[in-house]
Structures are given as C-alpha cells and as structure tokens.
Amino acid sequence: MSTIKELIAQFREVADNPKKAMDDYKKETGKGAVGIMPVYCPEEIVHAAGYLPMGMWGAQKKNISKARSFLPPFACSVMQSVMELQLDGVYDELDAVIFSVPCDTLKCMSQKWKGKAPQIVFTHPQNRKMAMSAANVFAREEYAILKQKLEDILDVRISVKALKNSIAVYNENRAACREFSDLVAENPGLISLKDRHAVIKARWFMEKSRHTAMLKELNDLIRSADKVPFSGKRVVVSGILLEPDEVLDIFEEFGFAIVADDLAQETRNFRQDVPEDADPLMALAKAWTAFDGCSLATDADKPKGDILINAVKKYNADAVIVCMMKFCDPEEFDYPILLQQFAAAGVKNLQIEIDQETTSFEQVRTRLQTFSEVL
Amino acid sequence: MDSINVNEATSKELLGYFQAKLDEEAWEAKRNGKLVCWSASVAPPEFCVAMDIALVYPETHAAGAGARKASMDLLEVADQKGYNIDICSYARTNLGYMELLKQEAMSGEKPDKLKNTKAAYVPLPDLVITCNNICNTLLKWYENLAKELNIPCIIIDVPFNHTMPVQRHCKEYIADQYRVAIKQLEEITGRAFDYDKFLKVQEQTQRTVYWWNKIASYATRKPSPLNGFDLFNYMALIVCARSRDYGEITFRKFCEELEAKDQAGQYAFGPAEAEKHRVTWEGIAVWTYLGATFKGLKAQGSVMTGSCYPGMWSLVYTPGDLESMAEAYTKVYINTCGANRYEEFYKVVKSSKSDGMVMHLNRSCKLMGLLNNEGGEYVNKKMGIPFVSFDGDQTDPRVFSEAQYVNRVQALSEMMDAQ
Predict the structure, then answer these.
(1) Of the four, A238, A371, B37, B348, which is 20 to 30 A from B271 by CA?
(2) Within 10 A of B118 (CB to CB), how many other CB atoms are there?
(3) What is the pLDDT at residue A1?
C-alpha cells in the first residue's frame, strides 16, 4: 500500500507534467486527447469518446512575448499564457480543442485559435434561472452539436450508454474530490497547500476513474492519519485559480490553511453533481443551469456571497481570501457585492491579485503577512 | 419643459429636445407611480414601451457624463465601492451614479457629488433589462444593479453566434426568453401584456431603424455630406427612443438637412476639397475626448465616413414575428464569429469608400478591442488600405493620450497619402 507521500508524488507528477500524462494515456489506450479550455465544458462527452480531456489552464510563470502581438495587456493572464502556449505549438498534439465563451475575452480567444488541432466552440446559455427550461433546451442542443462535431473530428460514435457511464464516472470523481477537500480541512497541516492543489489539478490531465481510484486511496489514508497540530488560520479562498505555487508557499509561511476553495479551476467543478436524467445530454444541460456561484454563470441573485459565508461557517474558517485574477472583469464585478455581504455577516476578508505570469511575490507576501497579523 | 415645433426645429434642436424630454418623462413616470426601467443599450425596448414603462439608458447616461467631463467623479464613487479600475468604465460610471442616487433615496439628502455633477439627473429604476448582444459585461453589471437595488432583472440572453447564419435553436431560445420577459412584466406590473400595442411599437421601431440607417447611407456619397462623428451624437435617440417616434422625427429631419447640404455642395468639412481622406472608425467613441478625436482627424482632412458601431442598432425584423426579432437582436456583428464579424466590418469600410481605418483599442471593451487587429488585417488584405490603432477608453479619461492619438492619425494620413 502506498503512503500519503507516495500518492501525492504521483498526483504531482501528473499536475506538473501534463504532456507526459497525455503521452502515457495515448500509449496505454491507443486513443488521443482533446483540449478543454476554461471553463465548464461538459467534458463527459469527450470522456465518453474514449479520449483524454486535457485542461488548458495556461502555465505558471510563463514568459509572455509572442502572445503580445495577439492580445493587449488587459487580457487576463491565463489567456495570455494559453495564447503563448498555442504559439509555441504546445497544443499541437491534441486531436481537438473545445472552447466555451462565457466571458468577452473567451469569445475573442475562440476566434483567434492558433493551434493545429481542429477547434469546436460552444455557447453556454446565461438566462439560467428565469428561463431555465428554455436554457436547458438550448444547452442540450449546443452539447448535441458539440458531440456531433467531436464524433466527426475523432471519427468515433458516442453512445447514450457511454455518455451515461461517463457522467457516473465524473459524479463519482466529484464526490471523491469533495471528500478530499473536506478531509484536508479536518486535518490542516497534514497536506501542504501545494499538494492539495496538485491533487485537484491532476484531475485535469487524468482519466477520471483513475484519478478517483487514486484519490479514494489517498482519502482513506488521510482519514486514518494522526491529527497534525495546527495553530494557524483557516481560510476559504475564492477566484479563478490560485497559482503560481509560490503564492501557496506564502500562504503557508504565514500559517494559512485552505479549508475550502471556491476556485473555477477546483471546487466549482465538483461542488454540484450532474443530475439524473434519461437523456444524458439533457442531464449535462441541467447541470449548467443548476450550477451556482461562479461569476461566469449569470444569476441576478448573486449567490456566491452566501456560498462563501456558509463555507466559512461550515468549515469554521477565520476569513475569506479573494484571489482576484488580474483583468478578469466577471470576477471583479462580484467583488463589491461580496464586500458588502462579508461586512454584513462579519466575515473577515482580504483580496490579493493573481497573475499567473508573475515572478515577483512581494506584494502578495506583504498583504498576507499583514492579514495574518490582523487575524 | 417647453414644447418644440417639429416642423421648424433643426435636427440638432430636436435631438436636444427629445433627449431632455426622455429624462423628464422618466421623472414624470416616477412621480405618477409608474415604473422606470434601466436598460442595456441594445436590449429590446419593445416590451417595456408596450407596457408603458419609462426607459433610462445607463450607457447613454455614462457617455453623456463622459462628454461633459463628469465621469471622473462617478468613477471615483465606484472605485470606493470596490469596483476595479479594469472594469468597463460605462459600468463604473453608472454604478457610481447609482450609488449616489441610492444614498439620496436612503438619506433623503443629495450627496455633494450628485448635487454638483454635470451628468443628467435620472431616477432610480424599479426594474432593469439587459441583453448581452454587445458584451457579457452587461450581464454582470445588471446583476449588480438588481442586487444592489433589490429589484427584478429581465435578461435577454443572446448566445454568442459561433456559427453563422444564426442557428434555429438560438432564435428559438431567444424567442422563448421574450415570452418569459412578457410573463415577468405581467407579474411586475400586475397587468396583462398589451399585444396590440406591442405590434405598433415594433412597427415604430422599424421606422426609426429605417431612418437611422438612412443617415449612415449619406456617408457612402463622395464627398460625404455627413460628418460621421455626428452619428455618435444622434446615437442617443436610436438607443433611447427607437421604439418611440422621437428618433424617427429627428432622423428624418437630419436626412433632409443632409440632402440639402449635398445639393448645395456643402460637405462634412465644408467644401468638397476639404475631404482629403475618408476613414472608418472601429470601436466606441472616446466620449471624454470627443472633440479632440474629431479634431485630430479633421486636421488631416480625414472625414469619418464608416463605423460599425452605429450599425449595431440596425435592428431590422418583421413585426409580429418573435423569431425574426430574435435574429435581429442576436446578429449584432460583435456577437458573431470572426469570419462574419470581419466581413461585416469590411462591408462598412467598403461602402463608406474609406481609405484607412482607425481602431480604438478601448480599455473598457474587450469584445470590441481584442479582435481589432484581425478585422483590420482582413480588410487590409481585401482592399489594401492601412489601419492604425490607438489606446483609449470610452469614459475613463485617464487612459487616452491625445499625443499618441494625433501621432497615429497623422501616420495613417501619411500612409493613405502614399497609397
């Protein structure tokens, strides 16, 4: 039986080397991989085709140069990084790439794809609550078109049975991820923040049932591990993603443990399951309209604040740290509302700026240090 | 307010009169217990007008505040509320203004910034309506308005058209949302939807759009009797009054004036020889420096004859047909795939007989800015004409640099001379 350390090393190997993970998958299965641009692609459809869905979340501390010709400086750093990687040919071994377009930057990115792989674009409906049934029908049709295009490009047929199976596989993975996040929260200090991130990030580059199997093993080990004394502060983090890893190191340096996240790269993907439905494409559509709490999923009720405040209570957290992706206006719009809700609920909070490209962390360090002293 | 003789007034007088009248009507509605709705600029007004709900347009209000050099004060209010400086400046101007109105409503006292602002005084809304055909920013902005004011939000979601022509399921989804919006309005007003009036309002909208498009057609004449920058001014009525007859009356008069000018041999810059170049402007106006951007081009003898921006209100559809109306509202060029968008841009450049293109890389508008180069290169390949880009912003005066702008339009002029 593996130890926690050994298992985490395996997750980290995948999270740090997506290319190798993809090559291994191709070697093992004889099938290929499909790139998944952020955010909220119904990647179960790709999984049902037998291909490996590969998350495209940019790269940490990537030097941006060629992308400057195609994006102004006020596009977010994930997209700058994805553009640079496209131009470097990093995505050229993918068999297809799927773009969703829930923000204005992604709409434009979807129209300037420079990779060699064929590209599929789909649109999420945004009138998800007041016009839910119409939105479900629309999303189902978009997913049906996506599926058809994918079948044509990959020359495979995706059966209803395969898709239902993939949804079950993904829901099982979601449950395991939720359990992992909760177990880490119960024993802060046992798993480093970088390791927590690597375990979750690895799901973007692994066939999900394999990720689930490894994660269940890890969860069992964490459950039976001794409690590590922890005297730091428990925080909930919210944002698009929390990278580069150096930022997580600074969190730890000042004694912060992440007891729950609300990140588009992490928990927002597994907070809710895909519901049961006889029609699997409709099930995926309903998952989107039922989804709550992301800035990229329109909802005039703006439930994110309540979700975060509830998480603070549930996980006995000391504060929320909003990790604001630089130039991500959907997230920036949510912030002033969050501030009011946090003030009303007495939730302590801090905003830090996230820039995937950055190699200078002094500002984040200062802010986190000051915040730790305030707490 | 004083009345106006529509037969004798100039189009410019009509424009000023109707703009003020719209604000006055919104206040009157408020006083009489009727509803006021804040609306996104290309959201369909037909439903609210049919239900006798007064409309106020935050984008136009923000643009006006920018043009009157009043946006900075409002941007600061938004800044203090936690709105990041990278957010669309229309949204920040409006959310700042909304905050001042809210403070006034809650305290009964006008905050100093509201007392002193040169921005038009408009009432708080009872509901909002938004549509994302020109950006998804309008979804986030209106979410916040609805949340801050605890009022209903009507959303018309027009999905990004990654495939053109507009697909059937897109039209059906939008038409279904129209039906949901009607139901929402019935619930909000407590009255049955007036379908007869709705048809008449749709017909009125089509007449207004006809005359709006007719104005732009004068810029296809060479020399052009139309100074394209005038479209930025008259735009207020295609935004705020396209479902009323105010726009139709004003635009018709403007067309008559342009016709008369053309007959008299008077053009955008006066005599025919003053028109040295014709350019297409891509992007929203720099409202805080409207005069400077105009003069920069005029100094080079460059008449702005083309712009896709005013064409966003070319909302042509068949009254009585919700799917036709759905298609009109979704096929706004920036809500379509690159191939269609660049071709639409090319059509404007070509029909306006432009010799060059000025691209506004607008800090506030990612959807309009991030594909500027691709559009420019597409047209350059087809027509061989040059383009330049400058950094600016629609209502945040801190982003625009007049020196850079002048430099770029001079460079464009030299390139056009060399053609």
Answers:
(1) B348
(2) 12
(3) 66
Instruction: Tell me if ipTM is over 0.85.
Output: yes
Contact indicator for B36, B54 with CB cutoff of 8 Å = yes
- Which secondary structure element, helix H or strand E, spans residue A306, and what is its range? helix A304-314
Please, which residues bridge with residue B129 across strands?
A: B39, B154
Nearest Cβ partner for B177 among A107, A112, A134: A134
Domain residues for the domain of B169 are: 11-197
Question: A153: domain CATH number?
Answer: 3.40.50.11890
**To probe the interface with B, which of A71, A83, A98, A130 has the most B CB atoms within 10 Å?**
A130
Task: Please give the span between the terminal C-alpha atoms of chain B, in angstroms, as a whole number.
Answer: 53
Residue B30 counted as domain residue: yes
Residue type at position B385: I
Lowest mean pLDDT of A209-223, A258-272, A356-370, B142-156, name the range: A356-370
**Count of domains for chain B:** 1
Cα–Cα distance, B271 to B339 (Å, whole number): 38
Q: What digits encode the pLDDT tens for the residues B10-64? A: 999 999 999 999 999 999 999 999 999 999 999 999 999 999 999 999 999 999 9
d(CA B258, CA B305): 14
Residue A11 belongs to what domain range? 7-160
CA distance B330 to B159: 7
Residue A50 distance to chain B (closest CA, Å): 26
Q: Please write the tens of the pLDDT for every residue from A15-57.
A: 999 999 999 999 999 999 999 999 999 999 999 999 999 999 9
Whether residue B75 is contained in a domain is answered as yes
Which residues make Cβ contacts (< 8 Å) with residue B137, sequence separation at least 6?
A: A104, A329, A333, B87, B88, B91, B365, B366, B367
In a domain? residue A49: yes
User: DSSP labels for A170-218?
Assistant: HHHHHHHHHHHHHHHHHSTTSS-HHHHHHHHHGGGSS-HHHHHHHHHHH
- Please report residues of B whose CB lies closer than 8 A to that of A124: 159
- Angle at alpha carbon of residue A211, lines to A208 and A215, rounded to 5°: 140
- Structural domain contains residue B208: no
Phi, psi for B6 (deg, rounded to 5):
-65, -20
CB-CB under 8 Å, A111 with B338 = yes
Residue B38 maps to a domain: yes
Give the pLDDT confidence of A275-293 residue by residue, as tens digits: 999 999 999 999 999 999 9
Does the distance separating the beta carbons of B157 and A329 come in below 8 Å?
Answer: no
The answer to whether position A166 is within a domain reads no
Contacts of B97 (CB under 8 A, 6+ apart): B58, B61, B62, B65, B74, B77, B117, B119
- Provide the β-strand partners of residue B302: B277
Please count the structural domains in chain A: 1
What CATH number corresponds to the domain at position B22? 3.40.50.11890
When the pLDDT of each residue in chain B is averaged and rounded to a whole number, the result is 96
